[in-house]
Amino acid sequence: MENNTVLEVKNLHVHYVTSESAAKAVNGIDFEVKEGESLGLVGETGAGKTTTALAIMQLIPDPPGIIVDGEIYFEGNNVILNTDKENQAMRGNGISMIFQDPMTALNPIMTVGDQLSEVLLTHEKLSKAEAKKRVIDLLEIVGVKSDRYDDYPHQFSGGQKQRVVIAMSLLCNPKLLIADEPTTALDVTIQAQVLEIINNLREKYKMAMILITHDLGVVAETCDKVAIMYAGQIVEAGTVREVYLNPKHPYTRGLFDSIPKLDDDSSELIPIEGAISNAADLPTGCYFHPRCRYCKEICKQQQPPQKGEGHTFMCHFDLFSEEEKEERR
Ligand code: SF4
């Protein structure tokens, strides 16, 4: 592991096990994020994105969740082996997470200023006055006026609440920020503002970031690298440029095709046919095969290998190489 690697996930498997079933939510993923780098984790609902984030934070609800295999190194330390106390400290000072719904992070019966100050006082040795000053400074940075310090969460609009949550996530200068669909609940104009705030702060504080989203446009604007998840696996990964200019997995191609084109009058969304497989009943072979128009017999029998270096993809074939395209003509 290079020493500027903030996070390294190796062969991670997470299952949710009940007496009736075992849902294989994450199935052997590997990725790393370096200092100051941002990775977009993209996929449909049920692809395993949020489970991956919760595993990194060591917040998988157990039971029914179990990390059945793998390693998660944060600053060189395998967090799976940490004590609860060590993980609590890591969540305070090392890794922060912004959730889709800001109200999950805010206490409705405490003023915004008090709850942000409390976070600081729990994790850092500061006087109350110092904590208050730091909170007000950060609120101003994210565009919330200092006179809102004594207001309660319900007095803020959705966009303002998400700004407060962003300020809260940055209070202790985390090395890694995980943002799980941070703008999905907001309307489009506010979305752009919130993304800009996250981007500017990330650059200012040189934070690494994992942005979880189903929106390829948001990744293009915000991230250096992208990993496409399907049925708990990373089916394609690389720099945003590599993957966007030359998607190699049929699922990635399908995601791009499902975005309405500006020059297309119909602007109709062309969804990928079928639905993501049930994690409790994954198909044999390639998990994408029931939806893949290029499926061959081998795809139903054998899991595809990971191909490529840097820009990687999981498929038995290199379907969009010039040779393969020629063969299909
Ligand atoms: Fe499609 Fe086969 Fe490639 Fe899977 S391995 S993506 S089914 S072509």
Major sheet details: 8 strands, mixed
Q: How many whole angstroms does the radius of gyration measure?
A: 21 Å
C-alpha geometry? globular
Instruction: Give the structural class.
Output: alpha/beta
Average pLDDT, rounded to a whole number, is 91
Helix proportion: 25-40%
**Largest beta sheet: strand ordering:** 6-7-8-3-9-10-12-11
The figure for the number of domains is 2
Model description:
- The chain is of the alpha/beta class and 329 residues long.
- The protein folds into 2 domains: 1-84 and 176-190 and 201-329, P-loop containing nucleotide triphosphate hydrolases (Rossmann fold); 95-171, no CATH class.
- Helix content is 33%, strand content 23%.
- The protein has 11 helices and 12 strands.
- The protein has helices at residues 49-57, 84-94, 112-123, 128-141, 158-170, 188-205, 216-222, 240-245, 250-257, 297-301, 322-328, and strands spanning 5-17, 22-34, 38-42, 65-74, 77-78, 95-98, 176-180, 208-213, 225-230, 233-239, 306-307, 312-314.
- The strands form 2 sheets. Strands 6-7-8-3-9-10-12-11 form an 8-stranded mixed β-sheet, with helices on both faces. It has a 4-stranded antiparallel β-sheet with strand order 2-1-4-5, with helices on one face.
- Strand 1 (5-17) and strand 2 form a beta hairpin.
- Helix 3 packs across helix 4, helix 4 (128-141) crosses helix 5 and helix 5 (158-170) packs parallel to helix 6 (188-205).
- The longest helix has 18 residues, at 188-205.
- The radius of gyration is 21 Å and the shape is globular.
- The model has no long low-confidence stretch (mean pLDDT 91).
- The chain binds iron/sulfur cluster.
- Iron/sulfur cluster is lined by residues 250, 286, 288-289, 292, 294-295, 299, 304, 315-317.
